[in-house]
Design brief:
The protein has 159 residues and is of the alpha/beta class. It has a single domain, classed as Rossmann fold (3-Layer(aba) Sandwich), CATH 3.40.50. It contains 2 helices and 3 strands, in the order H-E-H-E-E. A 3-stranded parallel β-sheet has the order 1-2-3, covered by helices on one side. Helix 1 packs across helix 2. About 5% of the residues have low confidence.
């Protein structure tokens, strides 16, 4: 995002918050503080990403709601819950109306995946990107997409 600062948008910074609060009032306080920081910085929009599932997702959604209530338009980028053979909802809780949502998948899709015609957002692309790819690893197979600390070379425009 720093690479696109001044070109596509005005990057104001990152706000990181602790999750796994025990009480609802603590979750709300943390979420409201995050929204206050965003509005104090003058943010018109925010990209919110959770680190895992369960309580962390509840805390993340509290931040999304607080930002939206404060007038900061929010996009949530998240993995979906494993579908448990179609019996589980994709998210533990839903986002407020008007929130953008980007799904990075749930890791339960069978592979291998067929070759693609076009690859975007991957930086330098080699021929192997266009080949058949193996299925993702692990229960939440999209874990390789979680770059919550910002160490990848992808910008939000590339992503």
């Amino acid at each position: 995002m720093c690479r696109r600062h001044g070109i596509d948008f005005n990057f104001l910074g990152c706000i990181m918050v602790r999750t796994m609060w025990e009480e609802q009032r603590q979750k709300e306080l943390m979420a409201n503080r995050a929204a206050l920081m965003a509005t104090t910085l003058g943010a018109a929009g925010a990209i919110v990403t959770p680190t895992l599932r369960g309580q962390r997702m509840l805390d993340t959604m509290a931040v999304v709601r607080a930002c939206e209530d404060a007038g900061v338009k929010t996009v949530l980028i998240t993995e979906e819950e494993d579908d448990e053979d179609g019996a589980a909802p994709p998210l533990l809780v839903t986002a407020p109306d008007g929130v953008g949502l980007v799904s990075t998948g749930d890791g339960s899709a069978p592979g291998p995946f067929p070759p693609v015609q076009r690859v975007i957002g991957a930086g330098p692309i080699g021929d192997h990107w266009y080949a058949e790819q193996p299925a993702p690893h692990g229960r939440y197979g999209t874990s390789h997409l979680n770059d919550v600390w910002g160490f990848s070379l992808l910008s939000c425009v590339d992503y």
